[in-house]
Amino acid sequence: MGRICFLLSTAVLHLLLSSVAQAQVGLPNYYEDHATTPGWKDYRALAERLDSLEAENSSLRSQVLSSNEADGAAILPVEYCAACNQLPCGCDRADNQCGWLNQLSAACKEGLSWNKGQLRIVPFGYFAADMIASEKAYTLLGGPLFLLPAVPPDIPDSRFTFTGQQTTLGANVTGPNLGDYESSAVAAFNFFGDRPVQNNPGVFFVLGYLQLQSDEWRFWGGQDADAIGRQNTNSPAWTSHKQSGNFGQIRPGFRAERTFLLDDDAVTSIYLGLTQQVVLDFIANPQVAGTDNGWPNIEFRCGLDLGTNNEGIRPVTIAVGGLIGETRAVDFTGQAKGNVSTTWAVIPELRLQLGRVGFHGEAFIGDAIGTYNAGIGQSLNIITDEAIYTVGGFGELFYELFSDLTIAVGYGIDDPRNSDLGPNQRSRNETYWTNAIWRLNDQWETRFEVARLETDWTAPSVGNKAMQYLVSVRYYF
Hints:
2 domains; mainly beta; single chain; 16-stranded antiparallel β-barrel
């Protein structure tokens, strides 16, 4: 270092003296030959190295800026999650209504992403460890739906389950824009098996859809949560009180939604979808669910969101949805029978949040809607094959006690019309519950719930009642 400093000092002094001399005779110093100057070669080598490093730094700086500009166009938030009430950056808080899937956007999880050409792939999901204790036997061990018929009092019938099947793994893929539309796709799986009600663990296909989205339009096709009846409970169970007032299912189809910004504090939207009529994943007996009659279901929803926009959430949501289609009866082997029923439903929704206090809920009324987790999973009479008329809904009041602790109380009911039912069918399913969500940090979350579940059956089966205790520990990524 000392030698370099000496050489630099010598070279600088020589240049100054040379410049003065050249100024006197009018000769430009940069044309002179300095090869014989002491230390000149070492100085030139050092100067050339510094010039090279500066050029290299400039090139790297340009590449980084160019890459960041490209990334900014490619990292597109998934601004819609049916289960999460249109939250752009994920459902990591209790009041964001996310029960079925913690949907995350690419922008929120940029550090975990990787690129493939013009595509950006962002993994998301959570690992779960669940515990469920019940005084009586129930359907779907990984998440209660309804109680099985009562057994004689002298026969023990309590159940205790540990499971990790709720663990959900997925990826969000974003790509180049198509005109004014952002392109993306989502896929996710958990481990409830291809028919969850059979309690056989395995890979279960939760979501898989592609979409084009602009500021005003969204088009998507593939398998997604139902876009009608979008409210959800804070329950730790993956089933989240489905078939006990919580309407909706996971369903393939093609969908479109148009959003209208009325002003800064009011947004309305209109949704239209053509979807799969029958989804048997949560149907205990396909004979009472039927099959399609060669037509898709037509779904419609009109929603109004009011109040100040806070990261994609407004304090008031009012919506009404509906569907219409046809259901054909099948026998126990799955062969079609002659009876065809009209499937229809109307589903109003409401969500309110004022500071720390909030409420969300929905109601439904309709015929042959068992595959939407209404009618307690029953669409048709098991004997006559006629449609089952049912009403139901749920409401949940929640309060953010602390920034990391939310508590809630709720009630849900699904009540098919008894005269539409055959023997050994479920005639009423209702649940009272209280739960709490404790968020340790952005990754760790624990949910607790105590519930009272009652399922009534038509004769000769006997209704059943049970207390249930649920715990879910989750690690989000």
